[in-house]
Amino acid sequence: MDNTYPPGSSFPNPQNNPPTPPPGVPEIPPKQTVTLRTMDTDMKSIGRGESMPVPETVMAPEGKKDFVYSSETQNQMAGQQVVQEEETHDNKGKKMFIWIGSIVGVLILVAVGYFVVYPLLFPKAAPPPPPPPPPPTVVKALHNSYFVTVPPNKTSIPLTDVSFLEISTAFQPITVAANKLPDGSLQEIEIQNAQTGQIPFSQYLDAFGVGIAASSTTAWFENDFTAFAYYDANGIWPGYIAKLKPGVTKEQLVTGLAPLETADLSKLYLFPPGAAKAGGFKDGKVNTKDARYVQFTSPGAAFDYLVIDQYLLLSTSYDGAKRAATLLGF
Fold it and tell me: Could you tell me the pTM of the whole model?
């Protein structure tokens, strides 16, 4: 079999037909060929008896030998492909982690800026303080006279502090000679606080220290009470009328008021009454009503206390007690 090819015919060139690379491996582009016609190639064509000069085909110079896909090379290329795929997968994971971390970092910075830095740089104005609560409404305690027959003379003594000193000072104006009423006169006195009105009887009596607890007098008597001053030749004699609360009996008061008979009663007087006379307290009558009394050495000074119906009457003068009982209707 003749393996020669006629002149001018093409023949297979292994360099022009490189082996096909394995699947998955990128195909290497074919090498470029160059046709050259020189005097030498023309002489060769004449020597071969060719009617026309045939240029010589040569490979473009690359400076490297042709690559041959051996089995070993194919295995290496396949391994490199796997490594490249793994590296590509790892790179994608790292990039995703970096992106997520960057986003979280940005969110944290934004939160810190909004909730920490911004309030420090631009603090909110403090809200105005709430308006003060309105002052409590004070309902003044009203006073009603217990006298059935209202005396023609009446005055008022204001107190800001319910103490013995405050009370004795407030009573001084009625002791002035220019204000003295005729002998036998009885003047009603309203004792009130400018803000709260009528002073409670228990609080008022407690200021004199007569030995009876304010809690007891609060339980026995109403808050309202009637005060008076009796005038005679011997002086000015204060007295007081309190009203029993419902359910309080005379027997309770006989026992409850017993400390009066051993107490210092001098503070109830506008002037010193002197010493108590011998025998101390005794039973007596005030306008036919049973009473307990004690006399002092100063003329006209005698302390009387008695329960008349629903009232307690205290007087620093016997004549004053009789006059007040009459105005009460007894």
Answer: 0.60
